[in-house]
Amino acid sequence: MDARMHHRVTETETDALYQRFPHLRRIDLLWGSAECRKYVFDLMTDTRGGTRMGFPKEHALTIMKLLMEHDQSFPQFEHQITNLWGEDERRRGSRK
After folding, report:
1. Which residues in 23-41 are b (16+ Cβ under 10 Å) and which e?
2. Using one digit for the tens of pLDDT, what is the confidence trace for 42-85?
């Protein structure tokens, strides 16, 4: 293995994704956290008012695989999605 290659923390192959989008290496640093789940989920969501171009198909597929792998490995974070108003869904359901 090339010494410049990173140690993979996921089962999903990420080398091509990280080569094209180096800033997404942040996923490896966050892996296994609620913050990672939100970060990866947000990558697949247009938060720029329709101006986001989106990822090329092969990279979008890798990101979706990462999201699915994270949800399978860390199911406790899957439903901790913040709604459009920034309110944690779990807190909202506990109010009386």
Report:
1. ebeebeebbeeeebbebbb
2. 998 877 787 778 899 999 999 999 999 999 999 999 876 555 44
